[in-house]
Amino acid sequence: MNFELLIPIVFFLCIAYAIKVVVDARVRKQMVNSNVAEDLVRTMLQGEEQRQRHGSLRWGITLVALAAGFGLVEAGGWQDITPGVIAVLLGAMGLGNLAFYALSRRIA
Question: What is the Cα–Cα distance from 74 to 95, expressed in whole angstroms?
């Protein structure tokens, strides 16, 4: 594996995530310190919290479905990357996203 390429990519992602966290914290601080109605601030923070939970749920369901796809590829004994193997993995991801959609409609 080429770790020379992996290190700068991970470094860039860490910097981008740190910037996002700092900007989000500043926006929250400004929102709380401004003279905005308390109900509006509470509603916005609750909406953001729900989006984060749904994002976690989506990734969890999709990754479990993708793991099932990889398990299916392993159980099938496929060793080479073929269009059929890629189709199984993409289908698993699609099913994971559809499962998230159905579950989020039931929750909301």
Answer: 19
Place of tokens 């910037």: 19
Q: How many CA atoms lie within 13 A of 64 on its CB side?
A: 11
- The verdict on residue 2 lying in a domain is no
Q: How many domains does the chain have?
A: 1
pLDDT per residue, tens digit, the chain (108 aa), is: 677 888 889 999 999 999 999 998 898 888 778 877 778 778 877 888 888 888 888 888 888 999 999 999 999 888 888 898 999 999 999 998 898 888 888 876
Is there a contact between 89 and 56 (Cβ–Cβ < 8 Å)?
A: no
CB 57 within 8 A of CB 97: no
Query: For residue 15, is it within any domain?
Result: no
